[in-house]
Amino acid sequence: MDLHALQQFLVVARLEHLSRAATELRVAQPSLSRTIGRLEAELGAPLFDRGGRLRLNESGRVFRAHVERALGELDAGRRAAAEAAHDGVGGVRLAAETFLTVTGPLAAYRAAHPDVDIELHQLSAADMHRALLAREVDLCVASQPIPGDGLDSSQLMDEQVWLAVPPGHRLAARDSVAVPELRDEPFVISRSGHWQRRLLDLLFNRHSLSPRIVCEGDEPAATAMLVSAGIGLTLLPAVALSASVSAPIACAAVDDPGCRRTLTLHRVADSRQSTATRLLHHTLTTWPWGASSQT
Fold first, then answer.
1. What pLDDT sits at residue 36?
2. Which residues of the chain have a pLDDT value below 50?
3. Distances in Å between the alpha carbon of 28 and those of 8, 33, 41, 49, 294?
4. Which domain holds residue 202?
5. How many domains does the chain have?
6. 71 belongs to a structural domain
7. What span, in angstroms and rounded, lies between the C-alpha atoms of 78 and 108?
């Protein structure tokens, strides 16, 4: 079975769109279509449903899982061989939803191991399980559960999440706020899939309410500025409040015990890790997270 065809299949399976996959792979769409057709003929089963939009079918999903593991093991073998040949510690690839939380331990790791190659990937929690099993990354730091089996997980930190409001807002002087009081308030929040948006939806759903979203995006650094400007309210973890924020905001506790963030480190269980990966795992699991979290 052709390795190149398997790699192309994974891109088509991820995008479920031939033309976009061809663009990403920098190949002609007819050529990519023929590659997928030959692969299906070799397997004796279609991998996609082609009624209208291209969709990965059940056979395709089963096959994708095996291909990801196989190519992941090949890549792990390549990296292990390179590490052994150069008598070094290798490199490490870390994925996170946001890097603000891990800048402290990463700086300490870089200072202690300046020769290690560190590769960072920003991924949603929904993509982390697949990326780990496919050996696209070595470690993942997530702020929400990662569905799937075969992972070794370590809790790094549990911290309170605060409601951030503009100065002068009617809630600015409050110590705590109940969720029903927020039913008509505008919110500036991350897009669906991010942990802050997931938490906001969960808090409102418990009261059979829906948050009023006036801005959703992928720029967490701009959120505090938008809140300060009076555009809306948001949810901020304790660690973000300890970072330097130039925009003036006021914070109150949300009257719900579930308004917290649990930071968890994940890796593939029973998998050979490079020395660099083991060292970073140790750094992250022994880092004094509580010193930056106020609960």
1. 92
2. 244, 292-295
3. 12, 9, 20, 21, 54
4. 159-260
5. 3
6. no
7. 28
